[in-house]
Amino acid sequence: MTAASPPIRVLSRYLLRPQAPFHFHSRCQHLARSQRNSSAVAGARLNNSVEYDSTPILHHTSRTALQNPELPEDVRKGQTKRINLYTAVNDALRHALQTDERTLVFGEDVQFGGVFRCTMNLASDFGTERVFNTPLSEQGLVGFAIGAASEGMRPVAEIQFADYVFPAFDQIVNEASKYRYRSGTTGVHCGGLVIRMPTGVVGHGALYHSQSPEVLFSHTPGLRVVIPRSPTQAKGLLLSAIRTNDPVIFMEPKVLYRAAVEQVPVSPYYLPLDKAEVLKQGKDITIVSYGTPLYTCSAAIAAAEKDFGCSVELIDLRTIYPWDRATVLESVKKTGRAIVVHESMMNAGVGAEVAATIQEKAFLRLEAPVKRVTGWATHTGLIYEKFIIPDVTRVYDAIKQTLDY
Amino acid sequence: MSLRSRCSRICSNAIHRPSIYFNASQTPSKVNPVWQTCRSVASTPSAEKALFPGALNSEFTNTLEFLRPSNKKSIPTYRVVDQYGGVINKEMGVETEDEEALVLYRNMVCLSIMDLLMFEAQRQGRLSFYMVSAGEEGIAVGSASVLNPADVVFCQYRETGVYMQRGFTLDEFMNQLFSNSQDAGRGRNMPVHYGSKKLNIHTVSSTLATQIPHAAGAAYAIKLQNMQNPEIEPRIVVCYFGEGAASEGDFHAALNIAATRQVPAVFICRNNGYAISTPTSDQYRGDGIASRGAGYGIPTLRVDGNDIFAVRRATREARKLALENGGQPVLMEMMAYRVGHHSTSDDSFAYRQKIEVEDWKRRDNPITRLRKWLEGRQLWDEDKERELRSRTRKEILAAFDRAEKLKKPAIRHAFGDVWEDLTEEQRMHVEELRDILRRYPKEYDVDQHEGGVESLDELLAAKSTK
After folding, report:
1. Residue A140: which of B193, B253, B419 has the nearest Cβ?
2. Is A15 exposed, middle or buried (0-12, 13-18, 19+ CB in 10 A)?
């Protein structure tokens, strides 16, 4: 085995918790790219593998990466490097550890670099007082993080998979979110807290390596819920999450850890935690999504625009809560049609909130019902993922139906 | 990868390695505890120890014998004075100055009188809720009296004596109980959910045991801060909880992470025999809470909670121990009896005999035990007692009247402090509420609140919610 191989302890952990991006050799990166739709049917026109190398979602050149108007002037004049999403997370953590000695990074298996490599080399560079393993207890490590934050530290706690955040649900919902409110004039809060967790489907994660529980946290006042779509977003949003004085649930789409590779500014920068981003301008229909499904939407839009001669606007919500109503409403008032796409199930999902808001605030401009393309009301059974999670065909068909209404 | 190289990996990670921000010379020197000991894992047929990585000090045995807790002697209960106030070890004494003992006594009496009056006030409908500390005054007052004021405290809810001993004023208690405009919690919390930044006590939340992992994390923060600023006096974190709360997963999670991160924290369990109606026999089958400490690798002591001198000496030693070797957790189980009802929403005679309670009140409680000791030293008598009780009662009632007359907090505080700043969504909601209050003025008691409806205008105008 090469030096990059995981220790045997981690291997055994992987046998217990199998998931896709288990590629410790860099040469496996290319395999990971086509992982998600590797079961694409021969001859399929819509449901093909996601083309990460050419998708307009990612910055393939330094020039486009630096054009982003959200970046400060000095960063736009700086350098970029081509990195994947886990490296972008690592970059952000490294910067936070370097610039603020209150920053702590911990969780299960974080010290050797993390099962997704997000904390690679941080323990050796910053010491095991600040980057360390915790016992295998989500409620324990989140409670520990809240306590450390309440005494002035800026802990970045990692839950190994979003599927395993539920033991810490009480700590997040009853404690982290309410700490500042209940402390009143004492001014004590746990706002330095960030809870990172890999989220979303990954090809063969089945029931407990696939979930997207963002809506459970967006139903809780006091929390910020953030989901980046790309390495650039991951770096800028994570740095903002660590800097803000509100507790943040930071969900990283794990299928993108290795697959999403783009040019990312080398300098640190901060992206806003309450702004959606219009990824693509359009005039006939608005698609609102976030995280991995944006790649699906992008492919569906390309096919639909070609087939139907329509023009689709694509919005990345980025922050699930508090979310940017203004950007979404402005778009829908212009297009008159809207589709919301997400992996988690429809009932009381993010789409329900977005659709209800559109209905309430843009009622007179709507020319079709707001369509929701989401996971079905079932669990993510191992071999059924491709039938359950929104794919290019379903988004394509939703565009068709909404246009035809 | 061989098992041997795996071992070396673990050990290289486990070695105490100060970060770039900490000077290695500031780190206290350490004896190598067992979890840092590295050795070859391969065992030979003649090896006396098993050398499995999960229990490095375990020896082989040929005897098949289950470890049976029922065969073990119960962990003893540490005490300093007997129930008649007599000092057991005369040479050692009580380590408490007379004047100090009088302060402790006055605080315990004040707490018990406040409890009686507030319980009654709730019965009259003047407070929404209350919880007394009867029988457990010694644990809270005694332990708090030997802490450094800078030590950080996390409470469950039956530790009013900690606040009192640390200097929370009667007005502050009453303001919180009445949720008035002076309440530090801005009227958001139920009564008895006190908090004070000045006294370094985190605000109480109703959720049981959630504060235990907080204490572990806060102690870790303090450990790093102690290392960063060696000039300031080292601090610890103290965390209180009942024996019922110790059944929560958070107790397990907290003690385990406190041990693995070696944090300077003292965990104080008040074992008062009941969790609402549930007796300890339905709560656990081991030897109380103290027996669990060893399982986590945590130094542990069981203490007579009715003996304030024992509580003080134990807490002082625990504090020292918690700061040893760069920090380590300590567990103490303080034995007591919950003399009062669980809360004003509970009638405890539905599940326990009145006679049992009366027995405890008469036979042994922390206040009478200290009083007997004071009387034994001619420091206290019936006149002093009468004078103290009458004066304290008047002071409490005066604070009660002041607090009851104050207005409720401004309505804007219903929305503030959720996030650091008001969100756009909150702004919409405040506007809607303001509109409703203006159009239906007779349906709401806005004038009881400071600033009336206008406080919402201020909130919308202000940039920050603070």
Report:
1. B253
2. exposed
Q: Which residues of A are catalytic?
A: 138, 209
CB atoms within 10 A of CB B52: 10
**Rounded to an integer, what distance in angstroms lies between the CA atom of residue B308 and that of residue B304?**
8
How is domain A62-265 classified at the architecture level of CATH?
3-Layer(aba) Sandwich (3.40)
Q: What is the pLDDT of residues B165-174, one digit of tens each?
A: 999 999 999 9
Identify any residues that bridge with B38 across adjacent strands, giving them in sequence order. Answer: none
pLDDT tens profile A214-245: 999 999 999 999 999 999 999 999 999 999 99
Burial code (b: 16+ CB inside 10 Å, e: under 16) for B268-291 equals: bbbbbbbbeeeebeebbeebbbbb
> pLDDT tens digits, residue range A172-211?
999 999 999 999 999 999 999 999 999 999 999 999 999 9
State how far the Cα of A224 lies from the Cα of A228, in Å rounded to an integer: 13
Q: Do A135 and B257 touch (CB under 8 A)?
A: yes
DSSP structural state of residue B146: T
| Separation of alpha carbons B224 and B233, rounded Å | 13
Could you tell me the residue ranges of all domains in chain B?
Answer: 3-65, 98-405, 411-461
Decide if B54 touches A, using CB distance below 8 A.
Answer: no
Tell me how crowded residue A138 is: count the other CB atoms within 10 A of its CB. Answer: 26
Task: Label residues A308-317 b or e (16+ Cβ within 10 Å = b).
Answer: bebebbbbbb
User: What ranges do the domains of chain A cover?
Assistant: 62-265, 275-404
User: CA B458, CA A228: separation in Å to the nearest integer?
Assistant: 35
Q: In whole angstroms, what is the distance from residue A157 CA to residue A50 CA?
A: 31
Average pLDDT over residues B39-46: 54
Nearest CA in chain B to A178: B418
In this chain, the answer to whether the domains covering A62-265 and A275-404 adopt an identical fold is yes
Cα–Cα distance for residue pair B288/A348, rounded to 1 Å: 44
**B238 reaches A (C-beta below 8 A):** no
**Alpha helices for A24-72 (secondary structure H):** 29-33, 62-67
B195-to-A359, B240, B317 alpha-carbon distances in Å: 43, 14, 26
Residues forming beta bridges with residue A312, ordered by sequence position: A285
Say whether B254 and A274 touch across the interface (CB within 8 A).
no
**Chain A partners within 8 Å of B250 (Cβ):** 139-140, 143, 170-171
Q: What angle do CA A319, A320, A323 make, to 5 degrees?
A: 75
Overall average pLDDT of the B270-275 stretch: 96
Residues A111 and B82: their CA atoms lie apart, in Å, by 51
Distance from C-alpha of B132 to C-alpha of B348, rounded to nearest angstrom:
13
Query: How far is it, in rounded angstroms, from Cα B59 to Cα B20?
Result: 40
- Interface predicted TM-score (ipTM) of this complex, two decimals: 0.91
Chain B partners of A112 at a C-beta cutoff of 8 Å? 9, 13
Residue with token string 């809810």: B157
- CB-CB under 8 Å, B254 with A144: yes
Q: Is residue A131 within 8 Å of A105, Cβ to Cβ?
A: yes
Please list the alpha-helical segments (H only) found in A336-391: 350-361, 385-388
Which residue bears the tokens 């060893």? B294
Here the tokens at position A176 are 């982290």
Q: What is the CA radius of gyration of chain A?
A: 20
Amino acid identity at B351? Y
- Binning pLDDT at 50, 70 and 90, where does residue B22 land? very low
Q: Which residue has the tokens 């600040």?
A: A130
Which of B304, B274, B271 minimizes the C-alpha distance to B287?
B271
**CATH architecture of the domain formed by A275-404:** 3-Layer(aba) Sandwich (3.40)
Residues of A in contact with B192 (CB under 8 A): none
Q: Which CATH code is given to the segment(s) B98-405? A: 3.40.50.970
- CA dist B157 and B163 (Å) reads 11
Q: Check: CB of residue A312 under 8 Å from CB of residue A260.
A: no
Residues B286, B351 contacting (CB under 8 angstroms): no
How long a stretch of residues is chain B?
Answer: 466
